[in-house]
Amino acid sequence: MLELKHVTKKYGDFLAVDDLSFTVKEGTIVGLIGPNGAGKSTTFRMIMDIIRPDAGEILLDGKPFASEDTDKIGYLPEERGLYKKQKICDTIAYLAALKSVPRAEAMKRLDAWLERFELTEWKTKTIDNLSKGMAQKIQFISAILHDPKIIFLDEPFTGLDPVSADELLKVILELKKEGRIIVFSTHVMEQAERVCDHIIMLNHGKKLLDGSLADIKHKFGSNTLTVEFAPSEGAEAGAVEAVFQGIAGLGEVKINGNVVNAVFEDSADQAALIAAVTAKAAEKKLVISSFKVDEPDLHSIFISIAGEEE
Questions:
Q1: Pairing state of beta strands 198-203 and 73-76?
Q2: Average pLDDT, stretch 258-270?
Q3: Around Cβ 164, how many Cβ atoms within 10 Å?
Q4: Which end of the chain is more exposed for a tag (fewer CB within 10 A), N or C?
Q5: Contact 266/254 with Cβ under 8 angstroms?
Q6: What is the per-residue pLDDT across 107-122, written as a single tens digit (0 to 9) for each?
Q7: Residue 267's domain spans which residues?
Q8: Is residue 303 part of a domain?
Q9: d(CA 92, CA 113)
Q10: 48, exposed or middle or buried, with CB in 10 Å at 0-12, 13-18, 19+?
Q11: 309 has pLDDT over 80
């Protein structure tokens, strides 16, 4: 288990990370999300002991990180960190050696991963011959080749086409099932929703959210019922507005032509609410063409908390 307890980091007068605490358990993908400059990369670097926190402590399985624990960490940085004029095999062998993996074993593992990513023929090519997406795959391999317990993925899908992104996601989920601790950093909220079990949201170094995706949506969002009415010549003026008046459990109602977005309370009975809307629509001679219940997405929640300027 990875724990951060009241971790703080300053650069001069700039407070990059402010009293940050969170826990990541084995077999979990935690999304460390927020806009650029939120403190995500600084947090990564402190956990990896590249920089030291000014206050607080970082624990692995209840003990402070020791120098030998660095071999338990795999890191995929957002920036490219490969030696462009070096062969893939030599680059991987060198990076693996830094993590105490002998060359022969590193090459055996590399062959398996190159085959998995359909890159076998590129083994002896230099990095500068690779496309952006291929280089990202090689960098991912370098981050996990030493079989780390903790894996940090900073914007891992950068440069990947949709097929390659799905392929990488499949591998990440397999590593999760093996019991790895995976910390996924991104400022793209849609990716975090797709990948993560748990969300930690930062802004200006402060933790704004910490919980499962379902819990966060329940706590900070409101469910919305979207109703679309078919055009109707027989309906009276104001009929659409009248349908949503006096229905228990409904909050704010927004009407845009024949489409209505109605926020309903957490305690509302959705089935009863939909039945009431249907019945009143029939009374008003309106035909409903579609119902849809939407949960708020992370992007909407973040904007509501951090502010529109973010």
A1: unpaired
A2: 79
A3: 18
A4: N
A5: no
A6: 999 999 999 999 999 9
A7: 222-294
A8: no
A9: 11
A10: middle
A11: no
pLDDT tens-digit map of 177-204 = 999 999 998 878 888 888 899 999 898 9
Q: Is-contact 226 250, C-beta < 8 A?
A: no
Please indicate, yes or no, whether residues 114 and 26 belong to a single structural domain of this protein. Answer: yes
Q: 159 and 247 share a domain?
A: no
| Residue 299 within a domain | no
Instruction: Write the DSSP string, 130-181.
Output: S-HHHHHHHHHHHHHTT--SEEEEESTTTT--HHHHHHHHHHHHHHHHTT-E
pLDDT at 221: 61
Residues 6+ apart with CB under 8 A from 75: 44, 48, 143, 151, 152, 154
Q: Is residue 308 assigned to a domain?
A: no
* 129 domain-assigned: yes
Dist. CA 143–CA 94, nearest whole Å: 12
Residues 167 and 26 reside in one and the same domain = yes
pLDDT for the residue numbered 307: 65
Query: Distance between CA 85 and CA 309 in Å, rounded?
Result: 42
- Nearest Cα to 201, choosing from 221, 184, 223, 179? 184
- Band of residue 2 on the pLDDT scale cut at 50, 70, 90: very high
When pLDDT is averaged across residues 74-103 and rounded to a whole number, the result is: 91
Q: How many domains does the chain have?
A: 2
Reduced to 3 states (helix: H, G, I; strand: E, B; else coil), residue 194 is: helix
Residue 265 belongs to domain with CATH number: 3.30.70.2470
Instruction: Report whether pLDDT(77) > 60.
Output: yes
- 248 with 261, same domain: the answer is yes
Q: Kindly state the helix (H) or strand (E) to which residue 203 belongs, with its residue range.
A: strand 198-203
* CATH code at position 103: 3.40.50.300
For residues 99 and 19, membership in a common domain is answered with yes
* Structure letter (DSSP) for residue 310: -
**Cα angle at 297 between 294 and 300, to 5 degrees?**
115
Tokens matching residue 167: 């392929």
- Candidate from 109-113, 147-151, 239-243 with smallest mean pLDDT: 239-243
